[in-house]
Task: inverse folding
């Protein structure tokens, strides 16, 4: 009898803990906004990359921290005076144009190809100067090897042509919540409509 009572008591405790983990009625909306993290990533997921990054706030993170969001990516450097400002303008225009009820789950990521110069402080000021300092914007830097590896996954080529200048591909890439590359826009000043449609399609699946 004592053993049976102990068993029933243990079951009651487990049930109580499980119920305690369920969101309260007032927390339902908050729970729905949490990214859906998938444990089993496909072999094509960029979230397998082991690189570590620093964001514009000086915080350390990994790409897999973005799992569960639709992520739009471009690679730039803040001292660029030619192509990058146009690429940044394209990203800003796309961000303002997308229309989805899951807008809070679409992140816009800009990765520096000049991590030696682009300190977190410079990335932060660049974000402010370009009106890209909202929660949806993320600027990252890493070391040279990890930056090159990430660029290779996007088919982005870049080369230092002077102490302060790089030649580089102008590509905007779209990743689904599992970190798979699903769409790319290449070039500057091109028609945004297909890119916006692709972002909205992925976001509306959330």
Result:
């Amino acid at each position: 009898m004592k053993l049976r009572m102990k068993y029933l008591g243990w079951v009651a405790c487990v049930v109580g803990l499980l119920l305690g983990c369920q969101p309260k009625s007032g927390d339902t909306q908050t729970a729905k906004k949490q990214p859906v993290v998938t444990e089993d990533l496909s072999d094509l997921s960029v979230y397998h990359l082991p690189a570590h990054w620093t964001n514009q706030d000086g915080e350390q993170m990994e790409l897999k921290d973005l799992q569960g969001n639709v992520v739009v990516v471009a690679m730039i450097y803040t001292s660029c005076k030619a192509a990058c400002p146009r690429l940044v303008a394209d990203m800003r225009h796309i961000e303002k144009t997308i229309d989805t009820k899951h807008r809070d789950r679409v992140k816009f990521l800009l990765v520096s190809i000049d991590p030696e110069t682009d300190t977190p402080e410079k990335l932060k000021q660049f974000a402010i100067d370009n009106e890209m300092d909202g929660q949806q914007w993320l600027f990252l830097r890493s070391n040279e090897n990890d930056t090159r590896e990430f660029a290779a996954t996007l088919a982005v080529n870049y080369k230092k042509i002077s102490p302060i200048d790089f030649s580089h591909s102008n590509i905007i890439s779209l990743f689904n919540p599992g970190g798979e590359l699903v769409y790319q826009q290449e070039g500057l000043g091109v028609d945004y409509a297909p890119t916006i449609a692709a972002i909205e399609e992925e976001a509306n699946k959330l």
In short: The longest strand covers residues 70-76. Residues 8 and 184 are 57 Å apart (CA to CA). Confidence is low (pLDDT under 50) at residues 1-34.
